[in-house]
Write a structure and sequence with these properties.
Blueprint: H1 2-24, E1 29-35, H2 42-61, E2 70-76, H3 83-93, E3 99-101, H4 106-119, E4 123-125, H5 132-135, E5 140-142, H6 147-161, E6 166-172, H7 176-191, E7 195-202, H8 210-219, E8 223-226, H9 230-242, E9 248-251, H10 258-264, E10 272-275, H11 284-296, H12 304-323, H13 328-336, E11 341-343, E12 346-348, E13 360-366, E14 369-376
Parallel strand pairs: 1-2, 1-3, 3-4, 4-5, 6-7, 6-8, 8-9, 9-10
Antiparallel strand pairs: 10-13, 11-12, 13-14
Helix pairs in contact: 2-12, 3-4, 6-7, 9-10, 12-13
This protein binds phenylalanine.
């Protein structure tokens, strides 16, 4: 009796599934994307969006996923607090997307994540490195390393490559990313026998850092760690040099943007930062991506956000393929089971915390250009 029931149940489930597959055939698979296309961190959103778009276009040119085309629906949060939550609600309830891609900045991913989680819609952040992002819940993933690793890389770099023993740390207290990276850097630098001579603070959007820098100058430290975003980091470098500070300046992936050099200019000479990828990587996967991106976007060289945006879309598409369905729970399961997916930022293996361990690249700014300095394995 029971097995008979089960047979009927299974058969009707199969019938329902194929009916819904048939009903969906020919209709595109909708994927939501949230990015800062305008506003203070437009460089982040512009790059991650272009990388994501290139991946979607390439997938569609190769017949899409599960025989269907992908439709990317992008919302611009204008770099404003609060907008990413609104955008996530819109994409989920109005557009009925099967998954969300975004954000780059950790504070904005932290706005989207609770909505993805409570709606049970998988979310893949391309580039948010704060550990709290994926800790929101089982539907939240990322395809990049996290800041306990990045902080360690830069603390070791400061001690071993720059030979620093006493440093200052200048943190943006209104950015979850900056607060986290600052903490992880300090922990490692101290445990390696270094000294944090002074800590100073600022907030996103600040333009004058002279009082913090004057206090730092008085300590005579050999280096200043600046775990912030490019707009402020570039101004900090300029004002530091104007004040006659000769200490080494270095930061994390938040420095990565073409605007960094445009704003900071010569003040950035000899500075370093960590990031996720280098366009100088000679592997065929990276060189192929660089070429296709340049062909598609006006000869621009893709940066780390572009590369991670590209990989986030590919990892999601791969999960949908393996799930054999666009049903959000099945896609979530498949995302969690991602192992050794080769993209342009290395190998993506999703761990038990839904993070991806990947190498970090240290960039040296020399002769007004970004130069590959070294790669550090996880
Ligand atoms: N990791 C940064 C954050 O979490 C965002 C970022 C990623 C910035 C990659 C630049 C490059 O906020």
């Amino acid at each position: 009796m029971i097995s008979r029931f089960r047979q009927i149940a299974v058969l009707s489930l199969l019938a329902l599934q194929s009916a819904s597959l048939l009903a969906n055939e020919g209709t595109p698979i909708k994927i939501g994307e949230i990015a800062s296309l305008t506003g203070k961190e437009a460089a982040f959103g512009q790059s991650s969006h272009k990388g994501t778009l290139l991946a979607i276009e390439e997938l569609n040119a190769a017949d899409g996923v599960l025989g269907r085309q992908l439709k990317l629906i992008t919302e611009d949060n204008q770099t404003k607090a609060g907008e990413s939550a609104t955008a996530a609600r819109k994409l989920i309830s109005r557009d009925k997307v099967v998954a969300l891609l975004g954000e780059v900045a950790s504070s904005r991913s932290l706005e989207m994540a609770p909505i993805a989680q409570s709606s049970k819609i998988p979310m893949v952040s391309p580039a948010s490195t704060n550990p709290k992002v994926t800790a929101v819940g089982a539907y939240v993933f990322r395809v990049c390393f996290i800041d306990p690793f990045q902080g360690t890389v830069m603390a070791k770099f400061a001690r071993e490559d720059l030979g620093l023993r006493r440093v200052a740390v200048l943190t943006s207290v209104s950015s979850a990313y900056s607060v986290g990276l600052s903490k992880f850097f300090k922990e490692r630098f101290l445990s390696d026998g270094g000294e944090i001579a002074i800590e100073q603070k600022y907030s996103e959007g600040d333009k004058d850092f002279r009082s913090q820098l004057t206090a730092i100058k008085a300590t005579g430290v050999g280096g200043i760690f600046i775990p912030g975003y490019y707009s402020e980091a570039a101004l900090i470098a300029k004002q530091a040099r104007e004040l006659g500070i000769t200490a080494a300046l270095f930061g994390g992936d938040g420095w990565e943007a073409p605007q960094l050099l445009q704003i900071g200019g010569a003040a950035l000479e000899g500075c370093y930062y960590s990031t996720h990828y280098s366009p100088e990587d000679t592997s065929p996967a990276v060189q192929n991506f660089v070429k296709n991106y340049k062909d598609r976007f006006n000869d621009e060289v893709p940066d780390a956000m572009a590369a991670l945006g590209y990989d986030s879309a590919l990892v999601l598409a791969d999960a949908i393929k393996r799930a054999g369905s666009t049903q959000p729970d099945a896609v979530r399961e498949a995302l969690a089971a991602t192992r050794n997916f080769m993209g342009v930022t290395g190998n993506t293996t999703i761990d038990a915390d839904r993070n991806a361990a990947k190498p970090a690249v240290v960039v040296a700014i020399k002769y007004g250009k970004l130069n590959f300095f070294k790669s550090v394995a996880p």
